[in-house]
Amino acid sequence: MNQLDFDGLLTFWQQRSGDILDMAFQHIAVVAVALMIAVVIGVGVGMLVWDRPVPRSAVIASAGVALTIPSLALLAILVPAFGLGWVPTLIALVLYSLLPIVRNTVVGLRAVPPAVMESAKGMGMNPLGVLVGVQLPMAWPIILTGVRVAAQLTIGTAAIAAYVAGPGLGQYIFKGLASLGSKNALNLALTGTIGIVILALIVDAIFVFIARYTTSRGLRA
Amino acid sequence: MHKPEDTAILQIARNTSGAQIVLDQVTKTYPHQPTSAVENFSMTAEPGELIMFVGPSGCGKTTTMKMINRIIEPTSGSIRIDGRDVLSLDPNELRRHIGYVIQQIGLFPHMTIAENIAVVPKLLGWTKSRINARVDELLETVKLDPTKFSHRYPKQLSGGQQQRVGVARALAADPPVMLMDEPFGATDPITRESLQAEFLRLQESLGKTIIFVTHDFDEAVRLGDRIAVLSERSQIEQFDTPANILAAPANDYVSSFIGHGAAIKRLVLIPVTEAKLGPIGDAEAGPITVSIADSLRDALDALVLSGAPALMVVNAAKKPIGSITVERISAVLGADIPDVQGAGLVSASGAGR
Amino acid sequence: MKRFTTPIVVVLVLGVLLIWLSSLTLDSIEQRTLNVGYIVERTREHLGLTIATSALVAVLAIPTGIALTRTRSRLVRATVLGIANIGQATPAVGVIILLAILWQTGYSTALVALVIYSFLPVLSNTMTGLQQVDEGVRESAKGMGMTPNQVLLRIELPIAAPVILAGLRTSIVFSVGAATIATFINAGGLGDMIVNGLTLQRFPVLITGAVLVACIALSLDWIAGVAEDLLRPRGI
Question: In chain B, whose CA is at the least distance from the CA of C159?
């Protein structure tokens, strides 16, 4: 049994503030890199399959399978091939992000009203022009929602990646587990967990901000 | 404990062909709102009467209606059905004996059409065979083939068909009173008209006491025995038969609500037989004739359409019995005016000449 | 045909795993874990934890959701949803390890942590499902003389059932994953094989554990999906 010592926790934070911030930064970094890769792959694949029913359902079904696999299992499977650290972490996070991003891309592109598509075509735009110039901007708010969901998902998953030596605040949680019974166990685990919750809340707020400033003013509610 | 209530409800329920409804000084006030939604509303609906509440949206007509089955509880005043104080009865028991149809229909999507209609009979503990027989009977009544529709789900029906099921469901336990809140409001004009016609035919044989809320004055004229024109806080501006309201609107509010064309609207209510028909020789034989079962409105329609000065009126056997002209139609309107003060009306009927 | 894709894939993957394992010569450490008795025991633990979690979540979260939609107090509703949302942002591994540090290691702790972690999908879906019942449907049920309980049991819950079941399905997938982490606090399960394989550098053990967990997750998700289809009231 371990009681919470609030003063002790504050002292702990003071002493290790540099290291905590460093871990928080790494946590954000790995999530951000994974999301960028996932957006490139996810939106790209979404643009390729949105109009083809069979590949579309195949892609969404496989992305769904990836999301169903428990994170520790997925990370573990990657270790024999890719070793420990950043690489398996990134791959796992990208795989988890794909479903929300691909699905929302497809939904967003398909949600463009046929009348809009037809008038774009009628003005002489080719299919690629319509896709990039009309559909993508109109679908952007929905795609961004997918990225936001993916961000929440990966921030939590990155915590487990610390077990395969992935970067970030998850390391504090596992250090807490490793020092179970010692005075600092609770401080370590609490720092890691609270830190991740705060990161998740901050990132979510950032997405609200991004959505506001990257959505065409005509599409805003 | 429940005994006196039960007998009171049974007495209301037994009178399946229309009960008297009395609203006395009924008021509904919502907290934190400066004015009442309904203020001192008093009215008596006689057994078998079809009473229309007409008024603009937000005037409190729906609130007034919903207090009768206590979906909304009145703040003060009393409501009696056949002399029984509604407010002293168990609201759920009460509602099982008051038919209720709303604009959104509210069919239960997870139940078949038969199951939807059977809800109230089941709540009342009817036997299975009695319920089944009743469901089939009601589907026939609203012109839906039981063999075809019983086992379908609401989403498999068109809007008009769903609305018929809504009416059938409200009639399930043969309630003496029906409350209808814009029941045909969500259907397209053509469906609405056929639903209205069927509904009138149905009411003729059933004779329920019905409170029917609508914002459509033409619907009120077409269906109602009496119309209550309501303004803000559900104030009764005029409560009379359609013909009397059209002929003599009580005030400017009612006139503005009737809108233009009051005379034409009245014609809907008057059968061709009311007119003094001219000699058969006045009309040339043609493809367009007026049936004796038509209204004066239909006759006027036919006259305008054909362009002829006079048209033949034929009886059920298609035998000519006289002729009708625009002048003869106007004459009926003139004779029907009980109060000649309605200045707007004189000019309106003058326009017909 | 589409419905059977998942079981076919699962059987194929398990077949490939079996063939691969039988082609290996196992050392003594590997033999200790890669045998039928050990694997069955770990799988039993894993399924037990998952099913107990889902059952508890269903029993606790659905009534909570119903109660929250009935309450008139916005404050209560906002507070519970706020706590549940923050709970969702909390990483599962954090919840489990914190609880172990504060309380004890072992099965009970893992169960409590898993229930906390899988609570939100069922809670929020119960609320969404009930709230999206058409107002006209609710009003006509009331207008026909149903008591509030009859409206809930005969009308609202059946209509909300598909949404509630979808939440339960998500929660089951969550708890299969979180049950893997239970190994960190000595609550058993297939996570044991993954962790042992990693620390002892025995990749066949690690791979077997990971593939089995993945297959369990996919199978339970599939079963829940089939159940969803079968239990969905016709007409919706």
Answer: B110
